[in-house]
Design a protein that fits this description.
Layout lengths: L1 E2 L27 H13 L5 E4 L9 H8 L11 E2 L26 E4 L4 E4 L14 H17 L3 E4 L35 H13 L7 E5 L5 H8 L8 E3 L20 H14 L7 E2 L9 H4 L7 H13 L4 E2 L23 H12 L4 H11 L36 H5 L5 H14 L1 H5 L1 E5 L6 E8 L2 E8 L19 E5 L17 E7 L2 H6 L6
Parallel strand pairs: 1-2, 2-6, 6-7, 7-8, 9-10
Antiparallel strand pairs: 3-5, 4-5, 11-12, 12-13, 13-15, 14-15
Helix pairs in contact: 3-4, 8-12, 9-10
Bound molecules: 1-deoxynojirimycin.
Length: 532
């Protein structure tokens, strides 16, 4: 279980702006409540992973308050402070030390009036970036991590951890877009000291601990080659990474420039990650998290085929090789939200983008349309427990209103219905435990040019699994290479009830099937692979 940040925070970015790394935000409870939760999680044989947000802090963190207090404060160097660009008066347009754009719109530098210097913030101006070049910063972070492990937590999901090493020359980037700013990400994505920092963290925090811990690094812009290095167990960096390629295929230059997804592009991307981390390293698998719109609305059909397409997506994802992540509500097939106006949004990324785009002359209706599809708030409405007021999430006023469809889509209804998305997720998780090929088998992509069918095999020893998933609202013919080898194969799992289901039976809309066969020695002989 991975908790998004629950630390004290002014909530400028939903808790990703932390003002105290060793406490719990009162809105969520206390440290005593946290300990109780951890104990209860452990008692159920589960593990709990904290969100580690150490690329930046909140501007209300005492480290930053000290750092900003004067240019000669001992913590001044804990953050990235720079004077205005040479020849420019501080505060003048374009005087920022670099022309980088922040992830939440506007320049990545903010002028601090009293000292007339700028500080770097790759995210909101209330999230100043820590200076990892300073060894005291690193040691303070490692000490805090050890403190949580000593308390019993089982690992960390590391927020934008591939951004902690910056090019200290701070070069300008090439200007792209209408705001005169540049994408500076090549100067802080997997920067010059990233492997050194991750290895040092591993040594200082994790080495020698008896418990089996889990680390997953969130890494926007990471390549397969970098990820292989980062997740090679012999190098001692992280167990796995969250990469972003497959959740950017339906976008243009920015995430708000929404394109239809081409299934062939999705297969090419995920297939490349499967192959790239096959021998060394490990994949994480996800469609959803708190930053992504709901998968069933994005990649499936959240109308007539909501249950069918949500279960198909789950089947395809969970049968890949790697560690699957389920984001709260995904297992119910929760959908995007019918936001009526900009006043319905809370997320800083969405609000800043809207304000900036409209100020630059964009049509507010078109901006809103893009937000409805891509905004992070789609994933941030309350968990839908039941059909009552606020979906049983709270008796107070929730941060965002619940999705109006909670009367139909909710945990109580899903648990009572064997055909629900929830029960399908349970079957997928059970299958991972009973069929070793799911966790350990090799992966081979099939039908790479098919725009409607996702197909692959998994192989372990003499067991082979075949996974078919339809991304179409029409029935589709499917022709599996060497389909005759699958005659009589066992249908392990599917999302359409069938009496018979040979592999060449056309797939119903959004149908998923998983077959299993045991490769007989005779078949091996015929292929000349049998070794006595
Ligand atoms: C990635 C997190 O997932 C996102 O929610 C957050 O806004 C940024 N990092 C900044 O911490």
């Amino acid at each position: 279980m991975w908790l998004s940040p629950v630390y004290p925070s002014p909530q400028d970015d939903n808790g990703y702006d932390i003002s105290d790394y060793q406490g719990i935000e009162p809105v969520f409870g206390s440290l005593a409540d946290f300990d109780e939760l951890l104990e209860a999680v452990h008692a159920r044989g589960m593990r709990l992973v904290m969100d580690l947000v150490v690329n930046h802090t909140s501007d209300e963190h005492p480290w930053f308050t000290e750092s900003r207090s004067s240019t000669d404060n001992p913590k001044r160097d804990w953050y990235w402070w720079r004077p205005a660009r040479a020849g420019h008066p501080a505060g003048a347009p374009g005087a920022e030390p670099t022309n980088w754009r922040s992830a939440f719109s506007g320049p990545a530098w903010e002028l601090d009036e009293p000292t007339q210097e700028y500080f770097l913030h790759l995210f909101s101006r209330r999230q100043p970036d820590l200076n990892w070049e300073n060894p005291e910063v690193r040691q303070a972070i490692y000490a805090m991590m050890r403190w949580w492990l000593d308390r019993g937590v089982d690992g960390f999901r590391m927020d934008v951890i591939n951004m902690i090493s910056k090019d200290t020359a701070l070069p300008d980037g090439a200007v792209v877009g209408d705001d005169g700013l540049a994408d500076g990400s090549s100067y802080y994505t997997c920067g010059p000291r990233i492997h050194e920092f991750l290895q040092e963290m591993h040594r200082e925090v994790f080495t020698g601990r008896a418990d089996r811990l889990l680390t997953v690094g969130e890494m926007p812009g990471v390549t397969v080659e970098e990820a292989r290095l980062m997740t090679d167990p012999a190098r001692g960096e992280v167990d796995m990474v969250f990469q972003f390629e497959h959740v950017q295929l339906d976008q243009g230059l920015t995430k708000w420039d929404v394109h239809p997804l081409r299934l062939t592009a999705l297969k090419a991307s995920l297939g490349r990650w499967q192959a790239g981390l096959a021998e060394v390293g490990w994949n994480s698998l996800y469609w959803n998290n708190h930053d992504q719109p709901r998968a069933v609305s994005r990649f499936g059909d959240d109308g007539a085929y909501r249950v069918r397409s949500a279960t198909m997506l789950a089947t395809v994802l969970h049968l890949h090789r790697g560690t699957p992540y389920v984001y709260q509500g995904e297992e119910l097939g929760m959908t995007n939200v019918p936001f009526a106006s900009i006043d319905d949004f809370r997320d800083i990324e969405s609000l800043n983008y809207y304000a900036e785009a409209v100020a630059l002359g964009a049509d507010p209706g078109a901006v809103l349309a893009a937000l409805r599809v891509m905004s992070r708030d789609n994933a941030r409405t309350p968990m839908q427990w039941d059909a009552t007021t606020h979906a049983g999430f709270t008796t107070g006023t929730p941060w965002l209103p619940v999705n109006p469809n909670h009367d139909v889509i909710n945990a109580e209804a899903a648990r009572a219905d064997e055909g629900s998305v929830f029960h399908h997720y349970r079957r997928l998780i059970a299958l991972r435990h009973t069929e070793p090929a799911v966790a350990h088998g090799d992966f081979t992509m099939l039908l790479p040019d098919d725009e409607r069918v996702y197909a692959f095999t998994r192989s372990l020893d003499d067991v082979q699994l075949l996974v078919l998933g339809s991304f179409s609202s029409e029935p589709v013919e499917v022709s599996v290479p060497q389909g005759e080898a699958w005659a009589g194969a066992e249908l392990l799992l599917g999302n359409v009830a069938r009496d018979i289901s040979p592999v060449d039976l056309p797939l119903a809309p959004w149908e998923a099937r998983v077959y299993r066969r045991v490769i007989a020695p005779a078949a091996d002989l015929a292929r000349g692979e049998y070794k006595s």
